[in-house]
């Protein structure tokens, strides 16, 4: 990748995470895969993993004050995983910032979930080393806030979209349709406005969040609560 293009991508990334590095070499290391250089992000991942787990655990602890340890642990496991980190990385367009060897470039490593997730963890560590733990925790909170807000504790192990789909199937109705009504780019990242259309019921529900997935979950939660209030529990 052209050096100027990557440097521009690194600048955009700092705007999206609302943090400007005083030591840009730390950011570069966080974005460097082992296929590119021996000075890579593997050691940073070790620190970043701990920062992420603590920060999300504290958010869940503060948000769900009555939940026992076991349920908090399950909620954290559903949030702190490769898929979620890769999704956040894509929202931040982090793949454009990666330093990859030629083999990884040719095989699409810039969008590989494992590479994106590792780079996210390394990014948390880089912020903590460039500033302090509080700055890294603040970034984690910004990135995970909407995902935690949209958690439905009545769903047990199921998310809102799954519950809505099962409720509609129980009523012998068609599946909901999700549409992007508006998508905007801001300094803090992308913003999505999503519509959840229940079709045969003639109802639409809207939500706005920093990721398409989070917005869909929020809209689905509203739709599911509407069905439950109007029609009761669906078998």
Protein described:
With 235 residues, the protein is mostly helical. The chain folds into 2 domains: 3-147, Ribonuclease iii, N-terminal Endonuclease Domain, Chain A, CATH 1.10.1520; 160-231, Double Stranded RNA Binding Domain (2-Layer Sandwich). Helices cover 57% and strands 11% of the residues. The protein is built from 10 helices and 3 strands; from the N terminus they run αααααααααβββα. The protein has helices at 3-16, 24-30, 42-63, 69-79, 82-91, 102-106, 113-130, 133-149, 160-170, 212-231; strands spanning 177-186, 189-197, 204-209. It has a 3-stranded antiparallel sheet with strand order 1-2-3, covered by helices on one side. Strand 1 and strand 2 form a beta hairpin. It is globular, with a radius of gyration of 20 Å. It starts with a helix and ends with a helix. The model has no long low-confidence stretch (mean pLDDT 90).
Task: Describe the secondary-structure layout.
Blueprint: H1 3-16, H2 24-30, H3 42-63, H4 69-79, H5 82-91, H6 102-106, H7 113-130, H8 133-149, H9 160-170, E1 177-186, E2 189-197, E3 204-209, H10 212-231
Antiparallel strand pairs: 1-2, 2-3
Helix pairs in contact: 2-7, 3-4, 3-7, 3-8, 5-7, 7-8, 9-10
Helix percentage range: 55-70%
- Strand % is 5-15%
Give the termini distance in whole angstroms. 54 Å
Secondary-structure element series: HHHHHHHHHEEEH
Strand order of the largest sheet: 1-2-3
For the largest beta-sheet, the strand count, sense and barrel status come to: 3 strands, antiparallel
Q: Assign the CATH class of the largest domain.
A: Mainly Alpha
CATH superfamily of the largest domain: Ribonuclease III domain
CA radius of gyration:
20 Å
CATH architecture of the largest domain: Orthogonal Bundle
Number of strand segments: 3
State the helix count: 10
Which regions contain 5 or more consecutive residues with pLDDT less than 50?
A: none
Tell me the structural class.
mainly alpha
Question: Average pLDDT value?
Answer: 90
**Integer tally of domains:** 2
């Amino acid at each position: 990748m052209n050096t100027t293009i990557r440097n521009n991508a690194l600048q955009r990334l700092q705007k999206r995470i609302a943090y400007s590095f005083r030591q840009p070499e730390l950011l570069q290391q966080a974005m460097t895969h082992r296929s590119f250089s021996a000075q890579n992000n593997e050691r940073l991942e070790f620190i970043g993993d701990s920062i992420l787990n603590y920060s999300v655990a504290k958010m869940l602890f503060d948000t769900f004050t009555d939940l026992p340890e076991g349920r908090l642990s399950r909620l954290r496991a559903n949030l702190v995983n490769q898929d979620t980190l890769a999704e956040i990385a894509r929202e931040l367009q982090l793949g454009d910032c990666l330093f990859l060897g030629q083999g990884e470039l040719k095989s699409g490593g810039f969008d590989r979930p494992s590479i994106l997730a590792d780079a996210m963890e390394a990014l948390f560590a880089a912020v903590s080393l460039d500033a302090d733990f509080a700055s890294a925790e603040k970034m984690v909170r910004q990135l995970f806030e909407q995902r935690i807000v949209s958690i439905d504790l009545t769903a047990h192990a199921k998310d809102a979209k799954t519950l809505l789909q099962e409720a509609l199937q129980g009523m012998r109705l068609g599946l909901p349709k999700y549409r992007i009504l508006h998508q905007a780019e801001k300094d803090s990242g992308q913003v999505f406005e999503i519509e959840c259309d229940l079709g045969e019921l003639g109802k639409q529900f809207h939500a706005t969040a920093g990721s398409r997935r989070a917005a869909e979950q929020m809209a689905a939660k509203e739709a599911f609560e509407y069905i439950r209030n109007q029609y009761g529990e669906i078998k």
